[in-house]
Write a structure and sequence with these properties.
It holds the Pfam family DUF3152. InterPro entries: DUF3152. The protein is of the alpha/beta class and 264 residues long. Helix content is 29%, strand content 14%. A hairpin with a 3-residue loop joins β5 and β6. The N and C termini lie far apart (125 Å).
């Protein structure tokens, strides 16, 4: 055998040995997770894999108290007929003339009559509400009770607009109203969503809506914002804007009747 042929064979053997070593080393690295076997295969993250991913934007906190609640879906139209709260509520207030009222909720809107009635009674029975003046007491009574003074209706935007027009009031399906016939009409959309930039919780707006419209029923007219930064009177039309005042749901503040300048 020639020297040249022997050298050629040795070179081939050396290449085979080197290839085996390379494959063995690569296999060991795969086993330790340094080289990822495949993109869809689970495995420890590596410097190479992290470098290949785009940087992630900081994520906002998902804590429950920071997650905004989804706006409720408000039906624009109900059946046009009403269900009435049954039974009789307790007398709200200690002194004054007794005024009785019924509570009604339009059917076909998914709203609960007992829940709305309970909320109305809770608002009117609050020590900051109209009973604080000790010149009126209020009591919820069932439909058909003789001598009932007024009814508080929860109505869809379409129905509330129709009812308010009985007194020539054009609410554009947006605001609530009170009629001379003793109807206090609360617009369902406002009850469930309040108004933009109100600056207070929905429960406060609901209390404002009830106290404002029942205030009309008790003989109180509209009032204006006394000054920028001051508390808004409950008889101010807060639904149409606070005019620089701060939202307020109650006619009595710190135990005293709080009012603004009268608006003709």
């Amino acid at each position: 055998m020639s020297v040249r042929l022997e050298r050629t064979k040795r070179r081939r053997r050396n290449r085979r040995v080197l290839l085996v070593v390379i494959l063995a080393v690569a296999g060991g690295l795969v086993g330790y997770g340094v080289l990822r076997p495949g993109a869809d295969e689970p495995g420890p993250a590596t410097t190479a894999s992290l470098a290949s991913e785009p940087p992630r934007e900081p994520q906002a906190s998902s804590a429950p108290n920071q997650t905004p609640a989804a706006a409720p879906k408000v039906p624009t139209k109900g059946s046009g007929t009403f269900g009435y709260a049954a039974g009789k509520g307790k007398v709200l207030g200690a002194k004054g003339k007794l005024r009785t009222f019924t509570v009604a909720v339009e059917k076909g809107m998914g709203a609960s009559v007992p829940q709305f009635a309970a909320r109305v009674e809770a608002i009117l029975g609050d020590p900051r509400s109209w009973i604080a003046g000790r010149n009126v007491r209020l009591q919820r009574v069932p439909k058909g009770t003789s001598g009932t003074d007024f009814t508080v209706y929860l109505a869809s935007p379409t129905t509330s607009e129709k009812m308010c027009r009985e007194d020539g009031l054009y609410t554009e399906k947006y605001t609530s109203c009170r009629l001379g016939s003793g109807k206090v009409v609360i617009n369902l959309a406002r009850w469930l969503t309040a108004v933009p930039d109100y600056g207070a919780p929905l429960e406060d707006y609901q209390a404002y809506a009830i106290n404002h419209e029942v205030g009309h029923q008790l003989g109180h007219g509209h009032e204006g914002c006394p000054a920028k930064g001051r508390t808004a009177p409950v008889m101010q039309q807060q639904t149409l804007g606070l005019k620089g005042c701060v939202a307020n749901a109650w006619p009595y503040v710190d135990g005293k009747r709080y009012a603004g300048p009268a608006i003709p």
